[in-house]
Specification:
single chain, alpha+beta, Heat Shock Protein 90, five-stranded mixed β-sheet
Length: 477
């Protein structure tokens, strides 16, 4: 089940259609049967009226009047329309005087006879059809091309037989029409009921969509409880479980933050003490071999200190998915500050650093994190560029580019540069492979974008390009 909404809609609409179809069939059959019974009752009524009329005539005039059968015409009007004078006498509108006769004209035939005097009364249609005398009760007769339902009633006291016939096809057509007409309102309501079901399902699932929308808008640092206000009872358990999960995640994150802070404090002190002791031993060492061993120990210790600091910094950044303590930062000025601390390294490699910074390149962010970001990019550029080359640092609007003249990076290794401890197979410079991972994490926190690619201007080297998206709306230069 990929969608609760789709499942409910399909299930409810299918159930409604099946129920509606079954109900329609049952109603159709029931109404058709009722209409057939109405026709039968009408035939019984016609038979009773004929019997009473003939009986009255016989009582008044005697049976001699019926020596020859009396033929009664089926219609009063030759033209299939009603005369103007008839409507005017009834006060009808002039535009209604041409109403045609019913389409069920000539569908009812009757005749009256007795065993002694033969046929007494016969309708014109019965004469045309040659209506056959039949036993008492209901029967079906094939008269011409149609089947007729025939009712025969006997009066033993007067020795009269009354016979009424009605075309079966006409009965069926009328009953079907009435039954179908009675179903039209239900059929017309199907689209509205479907729309109503769709709206009800959407309304019923709205609390789930609201919870999903709220969770989607949250970031890693927002672990506040979901509100239970206006939440259906069925979702209380889900909301409670999510709130308990938020509590557990927050507790785990807090424990890790405390561990990182404690590790930073506990590691820096012994490492700094060991460094001081080695420096003291270097001054007291008498032999050249002792000096060399101590120098190597200091280099290894410096590297260890840097790795520990980067790991602790990366661990702290992993828990900061959003900016904290954000201020307006001038990127050009921050680049100048970072370069001032790398003058000695640049001088040792005889590297020239040129800066082109536009004024007013202000972004909103954490100044310490941005300082670390720019420092790592410039440190990588100085470390990997060739001796005696030039490094370009461009600050254009809200884009920072650091361009070196190093050997470049193999194309297949470019996608892996931001992975932790990834340094490439041909890298000879010392490092931990954490600098670019830290840069990537800081950029993500500031909702920016960073990319590293090889130069395309005919020179070797790489380009580290950083674009900031979170601009400062409050800055006024």
């Amino acid at each position: 089940m990929s969608s609760i909404r789709t499942f409910l809609l399909l299930t409810l609409i299918t159930l409604f259609l099946i129920t509606g179809i079954i109900t329609a069939i049952v109603n159709y059959m029931s109404i058709s049967e009722e209409i057939q019974e109405v026709f039968d009752a009408e035939m019984l009524q016609v038979a009773g009226v004929l019997h009473n009329l003939v009986n009255d005539e016989l009582n008044a005039a005697g049976s001699a009047k019926y020596q020859s059968p009396r033929i009664i015409k089926d219609a009063f009007f030759e033209n299939k329309t009603i005369d103007d004078s008839a409507f005017k006498s009834l006060g009808a509108d002039e535009d209604e005087h041409s109403m045609p006769l019913s389409k069920y004209d000539k569908t009812l035939a009757f005749q009256v006879w007795n065993n002694k005097g033969g046929l007494k009364v016969q309708s014109e249609l019965a004469l045309e059809l040659n209506l056959k005398q039949a036993a008492q009760g209901w029967s079906s007769q094939q008269l011409g091309r149609d089947i007729w339902r025939v009712l025969t009633v006997e009066d033993p006291q007067r020795d009269l037989w009354v016979q009424v016939a009605q075309r079966v096809q006409t009965r069926n057509e009328e009953s079907q029409e009435v039954a179908f007409t009675s179903l039209l309102p239900s059929i017309a309501l199907i689209p509205f009921i479907g729309l109503f079901v769709w709206l009800l399902v959407g309304r019923g699932l709205r609390p789930i969509r609201d919870i999903s929308a709220e969770l989607k808008q949250r970031d890693y640092s927002n672990l506040h409880h979901l509100s239970k206000n206006n939440t259906p009872d069925e979702l209380h358990v889900l909301v409670q479980s999510l709130n308990e999960l938020f509590d557990r995640v927050q507790e785990a994150a807090e424990r890790e933050r405390r561990f990182t802070a404690d590790a930073a404090h506990e590691l820096r002190t012994p490492l700094a003490g060991t460094k001081i002791q080695l420096q003291n031993a270097q001054r007291l060492a008498e032999t050249e071999q002792g000096q060399t061993a101590i120098n190597k120990s200091l280099i290894g210790l410096e590297r260890l200190i840097k790795i520990v600091e980067q790991l602790l910094l990366l661990s702290r950044l992993d828990h900061e998915e959003t900016m904290t303590d954000s201020v307006n930062v001038d990127i050009g000025q921050l680049v100048e500050e970072v370069l001032s601390s790398y003058r000695r390294e640049a001088a040792e490699k005889k590297v020239t650093v040129k800066v082109h910074a536009e004024k007013g390149s202000i972004v909103r962010g954490n100044e310490n994190s941005l300082h670390i970001l720019i420092r790592n990019l410039i440190d990588n550029a100085i470390r990997y560029t060739l001796d005696g080359t030039c490094i370009l640092v461009n600050v254009n609007n809200f884009t920072l580019s650091v361009i070196d003249e190093g050997p470049g990076v193999p194309e297949e290794q470019l996608p892996y540069l931001f992975k932790r401890f990834s340094r490439g197979v041909e890298v000879r410079q010392k490092g931990s492979g954490l600098g670019l991972s830290i840069c990537k994490q800081i950029v993500n926190i500031h909702k920016g974008h960073i990319d590293i690619y090889n130069r395309q201007d005919g020179k070797t080297g790489t380009v580290a390009q950083l674009t900031f998206k979170e601009l400062s709306p409050k800055y006024h230069p």
